[in-house]
Amino acid sequence: MRCEVVAIGTELLLGQIVDTNSSWIGEQLALIGIDSLFQVKVGDNAKRMEDTIRHGLSRSDAVICCGGLGPTQDDITREVIAKIMGVKVVRDEEIVSRIRYMFEARGREMPKNNLRQADIPEGASIIEEMPGTAPGLICPVDKKVIYAVPGVPYEMQEMMRGTILNDLQKRSGQSAVIRSRVIRTWGHSESGLAEDLANHMSELDNTGTATLAFQASGVEGIKVRVTAKANNEKEAEKVLIEEEKIIRDILGDIIFGTDDETMERVVLDILQKNKMTLSAAEYLTGGILATRMTALDAKMVTFRGSLVGAHDKEYLKIPGEKRAAAAAQSARANFKTSVGIAALAPEENEDYPPGTVFLAISMQGVRKSKAITLPGARSRLRSYSVISLLDYLRKTLLYEM
Amino acid sequence: MRCEVVAIGTELLLGQIVDTNSSWIGEQLALIGIDSLFQVKVGDNAKRMEDTIRHGLSRSDAVICCGGLGPTQDDITREVIAKIMGVKVVRDEEIVSRIRYMFEARGREMPKNNLRQADIPEGASIIEEMPGTAPGLICPVDKKVIYAVPGVPYEMQEMMRGTILNDLQKRSGQSAVIRSRVIRTWGHSESGLAEDLANHMSELDNTGTATLAFQASGVEGIKVRVTAKANNEKEAEKVLIEEEKIIRDILGDIIFGTDDETMERVVLDILQKNKMTLSAAEYLTGGILATRMTALDAKMVTFRGSLVGAHDKEYLKIPGEKRAAAAAQSARANFKTSVGIAALAPEENEDYPPGTVFLAISMQGVRKSKAITLPGARSRLRSYSVISLLDYLRKTLLYEM
Question: Nearest-CA neighbor of A294 among B343, B297, B323, B294?
Fold first, then answer.
């Protein structure tokens, strides 16, 4: 089965927004074994949109249209699809009342334009995710189908996950499943990983049970993606489990997580499991660590706080690495947490190689610090410092607790 | 003149790499007044590449192909273009010796595959930028033209800037320049802005001096892009200045900046101009504000610090909005700054509508706070709180200082 993606919006062609939607959709389609052989960007122009969608339908079984569902006059996806279906658009009163309710709940008047979002091509069905915004559409055209989703990534993804991917898989009638697992590493180069895994990859070339691919993800580390194609979910899962075991044996503790497990997720999990709390001194990292931790722990149950900036200047006189240790201890004391961590840079009068960062941990029975050197400009150095500090804490919690 | 972009590579369709090249090219083309009405991604497949490029040539005057010029077997752009031109590829000995030299200079042996990069369709000319790598190509097809550039962004951009944009402008025979300006707003809905500007937009439809487009950018607010087409740089600039003035008159102080001026940039500029310093209490915003401010002010000269988490629990007993005021004052006192700001959420035992956020500012002669309601899940609510708080500070600095 083939599914084409049409990203709609003049701003995409003008480079004002990068089209990340079709990449994301392409990835999801690949995971359920559906080919996406063409992805097209087209502007908000009725004729060119119509031509592009028709052309897509002529060579694919399904077309996903992203964007052009908003309330303004240049949002014309609904009308163009209706024309291709050979039907009219009709106003759906239930959607009207949902949109009206959304505005009322915020105490705002609904601009009249917003009613356009309740216009639906006759014969189309509505995607139920994200009620109150522009609804997504499933529009049958003979034996093929056009889907319409908003260009807002979050809304589009909800509709893809909740409805469209299932609908596509049902239509495709195919049973082969493709599953993949991402193994996340920190601390090795891509070529180093490739060398370590070279023998195993040649084995896989022969057996064909799975494929491995590397993906350098900057401050998120380097990902090894294992992809297995099998007759059913269970077999695919079995291959992934076996592969993960083999790769863990080869790479060891540079693996910090799998799939969506970020470094901060992994560290938070270890802390929660041990009923520990964490705080940080962020004189170098400027709040990045807190932002990441509180994104997962919004109520700050485990991550209790962070001090950004030199609130307490006492220990700024302490030299080098020891200053980081003092800062970690101070955070721990101020926030009354079981663990305090800190990342600091050398002061201007201290003589260290460029990219030097001091990392420190303070917890029951452990007071440690180290100096590392990181590549890159200050903005990346700050982010690299955050993940390095969390990885330092991860290994400390694993081995010294 | 119309120029289509074809991004080549299966990894683009699979979402392993996001195609940023065609966005960049689209932006450059717009700036020299060339329309890019379609941009297509296609995999490394000869038949589909050929169809896509031919289709592009049928509706545009030029096609720029990005990618597929590398040394491996799946890099087949050269061969596909030769087929469309109806010619053979021939090995260019000068390029062979350049590539050989590049390897020798690095003390490495040249893999035989790399010779493929010296294969050129007969009748094509070579783009001289980036010698020693895969050369870019200019391939005439009747009165139209296909360009081929590498997928590596830096190499592609060098070739675009050095050769292709000039070549296209020469072919187009036109001298018109297109310039645009982004006007950034916070506090109004997209449809609200559209209504406010509706009259002026109809005027522009008649005069044709400029066009306006809206772009909702989530927590960055809504952007109004003004685009002017004129005979020369100076005239275009004049139109932009006039348009900015008109739009400022209509929209007033919901405009916080233009082009790359983010809200944090604007607030920092006002503070710096007045030699003021800033600190924050981030119990709700979890370090997001500090992350944004320190990204611009890494040495923390103006933004002195942020307290993430309830370090000081004293005033957690103070009810509602007043708690935010106390937190702002406490940040100001602790960090000894001229301004302290805070965003807080209601405590669980307080009765406020969902999405309520308290904002507060403490500075010389000003102690103020307000309650607002924001849409969205907690992660977005935090980001919306940051920009709302900064906008509150911006207006306070503008009017009460």
Answer: B343
Domain check: are A236 and A324 in the same one?
A: no
Write out the two tokens for A370.
């180290």
Cα torsion A308, A311, A313, A315 to 10°: value is -50
Cα separation, B362 vs B344, in Å, equals 14
User: What pLDDT, on the 0 to 100 scale, is given for residue A132?
Assistant: 64
Domain end call among B142, B172, B202 = B172
What is the distance in angstroms between the Cα of B279 and the nearest Cα belonging to chain A?
Answer: 9
Torsions phi, psi for B278 (to 5 deg): -135, 145
Chain A within 8 Å of B336 (Cβ-Cβ)? Answer: no
Q: What is the pLDDT of residue B354?
A: 87
**SS3 category, B302:** coil
The per-residue pLDDT for A23 is 96
Residues A98 and A208 in one domain: no
pLDDT at B198 over 90: yes
- Locate tokens 């009709």: which residue? A90
A193 touches chain B (CB under 8 A): no
Residue B251 and residue B271 share a domain: no
| Dist CA A93 CA A118 (whole Å) | 7
Residue B26: which of A14, A71, A74 has the nearest Cβ? A14
* DSSP character string of A332-385: HHHHT-SEEEEEEPPPTTS---TTEEEEEEEETTEEEEEEEE--S-HHHHHHHH
Enclosing domain of residue B200: 177-258
Q: What one-letter code names the amino acid at A10?
A: T
pLDDT band for position A140 (cuts 50, 70, 90): very high
What is the pTM for the complete model shown?
0.76
CB B231 within 8 A of CB A89: no
CA A340 to CA A329: how far, in whole Å?
Answer: 6
Residue A335: closest CA among A346, A325, A327, A324: A327
**B positions 24-43 inside 8 Å of A (CB):** 24-28, 30, 36-43
User: Pairing mode, if any, of strands A211-216 and A366-373?
Assistant: unpaired
